[in-house]
Amino acid sequence: MTPPSPEVSIAIGSAIIALSALTVSIQQLCIQRRHNKLSVKPHIDGLRKKHDKDQNFIFSFSIINNGLGPALIKSQRFYLDGTAFTPAAIDFAVAVCDRILKEKYQYTLVSHSLPSAGCVLKPSDEIKLIEVNFVKNGQFSVAQLEKDFQRVDLEIDYESFYGEKKTFNTKD
Asked: Is this model's pTM higher than 0.70 or not?
């Protein structure tokens, strides 16, 4: 048997090098794609703020995108004492206040907002869902107020631009 000619050896060596380069390129492409997904991954968190001011107590709840990428809001659901309820989107805060606060507290609904389906929450964007100003009187209790607000749960379904689905839940 005669050894292969130098041209055949060079061709085989070139093919092996080309296949090795192709394999490394595919691996790098997979790693880069995973990195790209992580670098645009949203993460919605809830932010409760309480402020004691003279004869008033101000409570607010916001959502904030603490992730690196935008969050595309798909839907939201409200629960009261574990049971789903569907207030009109614009009046959700009024419905919440009517159901859990109306008989117990003297309050003013200062502001409210709710992101609708299709809304995009950019990284570090914050949306104040509700802000309520309470008059502190003899029966006012911050501990009871917190218990009352814990009766309400909000779930927001959202996804990244890569289509990865996530859910924010105020109970988590």
From this structure: yes
